[in-house]
Structures are given as structure tokens and as C-alpha cells.
Amino acid sequence: MELTRRALLRRGIEAGLALGLLGVLGHGLYALNRPYARGLLASAAELRGLLADGDAGIRVLDARPLLQYRRGHLPGAANVWDGDLNVWTDVPRRLAPAPQLAEVLGRAGVSRERPVVVYDGGEGVWAARLLWALRYLGHPDVRLLDGGLAAWRAAGGALTTEPPRVEPTTFEPRVRPELLVEFDELRAALEAEADVDVDADDKPAPLVPVDARTPREYAEGHLPGALPLPADALLRRDGRFRPAWLLKVEAERAGVPLDPARKAVVYSNTGLRAALAYVGLSLLGLDVALYDGGLAEWKARGAPLVRVRAAPAGAGVVEEHRSTCW
Fold it and tell me: What is the pLDDT of residues 50-73, one digit of tens each?
């Protein structure tokens, strides 16, 4: 039986709708499985495989306090605690000068030629801070163990109390200044943005401040123009980072522009939770820097703060961060 013109038209429309639906579903599946930016995370299974193969080319660094490290750590891991990275002078927890950091890393056997994997107990902030410091010093290949020690143990990884045999190295820093924003630069950028006529057709602000503290802390006082992105909202309950598509949802909810031409400047009170947000936004392939002085320096130097009556509705649901950081 020959098909009528109307039947042919109906079948053509049905086929078009089916192809369109497949396209939408395909795009949705891609979004749900969108990969992280490469070279930032290592899974527990991946690291276990490398260490089981006796891969001596990897330097593993434990970012926990020394006492916790001595109670049990990954085989071969050297300890580089947060206190080794900082100086406490005008403000708490400011990154130490590069020569001082080079000595610390050299004692831990770190060199530019060997890949590094950093981890903590699963809080994320300590390992993230160490990762950011290593990247700032120009290390070309440093990754964070996703989920930290908790993920390692959940994957059946062994611990040891045996001190590792570490051969000291000479670590040569190649500082990447684009990963660190200082007070004067940030304040000048925010003041310049405040002076721009909102009706003028100007380029978007080059620096976008992102507050990594809880919504309550954000409401009590934040940098002018800062966007609320709680660091803990980037993690799953087990301490691993959320899938890339959910990181994107959180960033968009906060208003963070997903534009590599814009630089997100993350901050917290003293740079710990900011380091976690640094990793989370870097996983999306964004250009990210860290304001190391944080709110502690901003307030100490009398810079203006913005307060709101209530926590912003789109700032996630996390009210209290789990770690003991500032």
C-alpha cells in the first residue's frame, strides 16, 4: 500500500523528534559524565596500582600533623605538614618564602622530575593547600589523592609506621606568580570595578573574588563583589570531590563565570578552605588564583567588607565546615 503524503509527513516528523530526543539524551549523558580537567586528582585505586608495581618515580606526601603521620601512613610517604609551609607574622598562615619552601621540599625528597601525590586524612584542605603551594612553586606534575587516607583505606590500601627512606634533593622553585594574588592587587582591582559605570559597555572584571567559607560567614562579612562558594559544597560526604557536572552546578549557582578568560580569586579566612576551592574550580578548567592573606589580612588592613542580613539563598546548604581550619 502506498503511503499518503500525510502519512509520509507524519513519519518524517516522528523521525525528527526521535533524533532530537537522542541528541538531548546524548548531551545529557555527556554532561553527567563530563571529565575533570586532567592532571589534578588521583584515585585510591590508581595510586594503589602504581605503588604495587613498585613505581619509584612517584613521591607521596602526607599533609597531616606529624603525630598522625607516625601512627600510620602510606608506604613510602614523607611528611610535609601545613606548619612547614607557612610563616605566622603579620597575618596567620601566610605561605613561606620560596627558598624556605624549597628546603622543606628538598628534605622530603621532592624534585621537579618526579610526580607527586599529596593526601591528608580526607578533609581535603591540608592536601589542597600543599598541592597549591607545589603548583605555585612550579612543580609540573602534582596530584591530590581524591578522598585522602579514608579513600585509601576503603580501597584496601595498607598503612605502615615504618619511616620511609628519603633521599634529599635540591628542589628548584620556578614561581608561578599568576597563582597568587596579593592584597594591593586585589583591592585595586575591586576598587576599579566599583568605579565602573554599570551602564557602560565595559569589559568584564578581570578578577572575580570567590568566598570559600560557609554561607553564615559570608553573610557576616565578605569582600566587595565576592561570590559565595562554600568549599565543603564541592565535596561528597566521603571527602572525594563531586563529579565535574555537579561542580559546574555549584559554580553556576554561585555566579562564578565559567570563562577561562576570567580569573577567579578564591579566599577564606587564612587560605585553607580557599585551597580546596582552588582545586575544585581548577577541575573545571578555570583560571584560578588564591588570595593567601584572606579575610584575616583584609580586615587587619582596614579594607571594606560587605555584610548581608541573611545567608544568600543560592550559597549551598553547608553551614559548618568539618575541618578545624580557619
Answer: 888 765 589 999 999 999 999 999
Q: What is the pLDDT of residues 157-167, one digit of tens each?
A: 999 999 999 99
Q: Nearest Cα to 174, choosing from 253, 87, 112, 106?
A: 112
Q: What is the CATH number of the domain that holds 255?
A: 3.40.250.10
| pLDDT score recorded for residue 308 | 87
- Residue 14: Cβ within 10 Å count: 10
Please choose, from the candidates 251, 244, 239, the residue with its C-alpha nearest in 3D space to the C-alpha of residue 283: 244
Domain C-terminal end among 175, 191, 220: 175
Degrees (nearest 5) of the Cα angle 40, 166, 171?
60
CA-CA-CA-CA torsion sign (93, 98, 103, 104): positive
Indicate whether 307 belongs to any domain: no
pTM: 0.84
